[in-house]
From TrEMBL:
Organism of this sequence: Actinomycetospora termitidis
Span of domain HTH iclR-type: 23-83
Keywords: DNA-binding, Transcription, Transcription regulation
Name this polypeptide is given: IclR family transcriptional regulator
Lineage: Bacteria, Bacillati, Actinomycetota, Actinomycetes, Pseudonocardiales
Ranges in coiled-coil conformation: none
Residue span(s) of domain IclR-ED: 84-268
Pfam families assigned to the protein according to its UniProt record, in alphabetical order: HTH_IclR, IclR_C
Claim: Transcription is one of the keywords in the record: yes
Amino acid sequence: MTVLPFSAVLPEDASDGPEDSPLRSVSTAVAVLDCFTAEPELGATKVAARLGIAKSTACRMLAALAAGGLLEKAGSGRYRLGLRLFEYGQLAVDRLLLREVAMPFLGELRETVRETVQLGVAVGTDVLYLERLETAGAGLRFRTDYHRNPAHSSSIGRVLAASDPSLTAAILERGLERRTPFTVVDPLRWRRTLVQTREQGYATCRDEYDQGWSSIAAPILTGVTGRRRAVAAVSVVGATSRMLGPRKPAVVQGVRRAADRITVALERASS
């Protein structure tokens, strides 16, 4: 892989800024990591020469990347790629596999319920939507920021937190922001919704992120029996009257069946 000059990896609006600007620092970090595609171990002198930056800047960046686990010290002032990069890469591969495996079942679910269907995972204390299949005529169109939402006010986030105590703790530590008059912001009440989710095998959110819109989600599980946890979830979202009215049993059945089928297919694909 060819390592570009440092200026070539900078955004246009960052190249004229101060050396320690946030954008410039991020660009420097990316350029430093790229250096290791050519050689397994490097020191500050070589990195500085390759990128055309001061050796002191290279030293600071190498130390910062090592502190974050992206690099590790190899001795004699040299560094090599760290295990955290492997973890990130494996996570990316897993999520790509998840999306690939889930797509046929998401499509079938959309055709069955005739509502918008989503596939989401936890990122920090948010839900990141890996896929969203909308239905023409359902009356719902998502804004760009809907690709990532706070987990506490989504049914997918509730499903994921119900099987992950560390995610639950992180969400509560961040705080339960009120989005609508119906958002659950009391920690004790929110914890009770997680208990209910575990007991019934699915989660609902009624008007909690956008008033008038509600969702139902079910978990995609991994692990051995008795120690299974949700690694992702499927949800159906639509007008509250359609989600939680007379059609609710059919929507619940559909979303749970899709999540179960994705769970089985993912286990087969991963074996």
